[in-house]
Specification:
- This protein has 7 helices and 3 strands; from the N terminus they run βαβαααβααα.
- A 3-stranded parallel sheet has the order 1-2-3.
- It has 135 residues and is mainly alpha-helical.
- The two termini are 26 Å apart.
- It is globular, with a radius of gyration of 16 Å.
- Helix 1 links the parallel strand 1 and strand 2.
């Protein structure tokens, strides 16, 4: 399993394709693009994206549910985060509808190639490290 930032605005297709060729499952962190609206990432909120909103209305679902369904249909594991029980329940409720090929392609078309989270090369002890007493 390779846990990487994947959401409609940052899809990392090459990394996912490499993993698929080698039997490595992609697990998406920030699967609904939360990183795009919790940090200054030069993105607008995926939850307010008009393409995702239109698809959500067509299915009677929330934008978050549409994005999670997009992950499921494309064979990824997704780990959404919430502390609110209603949102946690909503995140599970994505198995009673299916996105069309056109809807999947529309979401695929939202990729900007810009990550919302930190570049993995920047995640070092110097930038994010804390002392670990046992170490």
């Amino acid at each position: 399993m390779n846990q990487i930032e994947v959401h409609p605005y940052f899809q990392q297709r090459e990394v996912q394709a490499f993993g698929a060729r080698h039997g490595i499952l992609t697990q998406a962190w920030s699967p609904i693009g939360g990183i795009t609206f919790y940090r200054d990432s030069e993105h607008t909120s995926t939850l307010r994206d008009p393409v995702i909103g239109e698809i959500a209305r067509a299915h009677g679902k929330s934008p978050a549910q549409v994005m999670l369904r997009w992950h499921v249909q494309q064979g990824r594991s997704a780990i959404p985060k919430s502390t609110k029980p209603a949102r946690i329940a909503e995140n599970f409720d994505v198995f009673d509808f299916e996105l069309t090929d056109e809807q999947l392609a529309a979401i695929d078309g939202l990729d900007t190639g810009r990550r919302g989270g930190p570049d993995p090369a920047d995640v070092t002890l110097a930038t994010f490290g804390r002392d670990i007493p046992e170490a």
